[in-house]
Amino acid sequence: MNGRTLLTIAVKDLKEVRQNRAAWIPALVVPLVVVVLLPVGLILIPGLFRATTISMTPLSADSGPIGMMRERVPALDRALVGLDEYQTWVVLMTGYLLAPFLLIFPLMFSTIVASESFVGEKERKTLEALVYTPASDGELFLGKALAAFVPAVLLTWTSFLVYGVAVNAAGWRVMGRIWFPPASWWPLMLWVAPAFAALGVAVTVLISTRVRTFMEAYQISGSLVLLVLMLVLGQVTGVLYLSAGMALSVGLALWLVDALLLYFGIRTFRREALLVGG
Amino acid sequence: MVPVIEVEALTRSFGPIRAVDGVTFQVYEGEVFGLLGPNGAGKTTTVRLLNGVLKASGGRARVLGIDPAADGCALRRRTGVLTETPSLYERLTARENLLLFGALYGIPEADLPRRVDRMLEWFELAERAEDRVGNFSKGMKQRLALARALLHEPPLLFLDEPTAGLDPEAARQVTDLIRQLSHQEGRTVFLCTHNLPEAQHLCDRVAVMDRGRLLAIGTLEELSRSLWGGFQVEVDFLEPPAVPVADALRLLPDVTDVRSEPLRLTVRVTGEATIPAVVEALVRQGARILRVSPRQPSLEEIYFEIRKEAQP
Predict the structure, then answer these.
(1) For A199, phi and psi rounded to 5 degrees?
(2) Residue B87 is nearest to which of A2, A12, A128, comparing CB atoms?
(3) Which domains does chain B have, with CATH numbers?
(4) Complex ipTM, two decimals?
């Protein structure tokens, strides 16, 4: 493997994505909403309710849906011990329920770039010149995969950082301390998020031989978001609590699936198949 | 003559279709070799096989001493390919395109910007170097694609329809460049084209391919001789001969065909040595000869004759 070749292919793919506004504008808007507007709104809006004396009874530790969740998930209950109603709301919403939403980012970023890189190139008929270069099939694959994977992980971690700043800043008056991130977020971000990024790449590579346009690939691979929504649903209903241990297990399962899919992806990614199939 | 490409019984099938069917030929160092044939003849598949981009179903090939199937990466470092469509990154600038491919072809980083500048200058694209390729005319794209193929200074060039879609001036620039690359710089050029006058103008030898099979190969003279046997000579008269002269020529042993017009005879002979005897016979008949000129059939005539003979 030639490092310069890998870097050249990856940088080229990212430059191409940069020129495709339809690809990167949603990739900026969605994180802005999830990372800044949503948590800040969730933290500040109950404060307005309190100011107008609207009751926060549903947030009570002992009653309503949150009480039920605490009952079902002892680990969550322990995390909320000693917090008042408003603090419970802040920790529950921004430290617990929103956590899986950030896992949308590695999937979204990686599928956008991978769709552009693996399918967009076929769509724009630029593959032929690329396959006549001395780059090996492995270098072409890895360069393109890295272009999708590395920025997806880095952007997710950046979003995590921004989210942390937004949550701590907006919740400062409520919490009186820097409380975010809770321990369970670290395996989610460092272990599960990269696994989701790899999943986005692997699925896009596999479907790239069967679809013809960037949008087609993006739409199909974008349906992977359903997996994240299942995690959200699991958290909300109390079926699943993304504790550190659970995150490590989910991440391991994802990495195993990634390895399998990437194995098949690499096998299909041969310049001959790209030309003849394309 | 040093062979740069050696191909023996090369075959490539796609399912039941044989895109390249037992092709055997050699291309020599420094020559412009034309591969002619209609769409679907197997020209592009041959180029792909010779660059190790496709694997052969049978037969063998050696290009620049390398087996394309075994070490395509090493081979492609030494070949430059102009594909039928320019395959440029239209969202990137001309300079970015060349820098990208220069890096992929392994040009040293320190040397790359200088080489890119030189290519942009040479192909008269320097002023548009920072413009996105998507805004270029077809001719500019073709020039940029040629610059990309030449950037790493390969000794062997594969050019697929290099002047397709170009205006006459741009096409002339490209053909002049190909001649320069071959005749002045000693590079070998493997040219795939439909453009028969262009092939005649450029190629030292040509091969005609159809439905995957090689129908004929050689210089124009060799192909003409194998098709019709010998040379064709045109004899122009100052005035129509007083007596029919064609019959007298037909009696000569090495004359194979005579076609007569009022002021011209077209005579086919088996060899150059027969020409003086033809002239002598005509003078003896009292013909007043204005001019005797050998006539080489055009590549177009040769091409269609080869195709006609190949019809089942």
Answers:
(1) -65, -40
(2) A128
(3) 1-78+154-218 (3.40.50.300), 87-151 (no CATH), 226-310 (3.30.70.100)
(4) 0.85
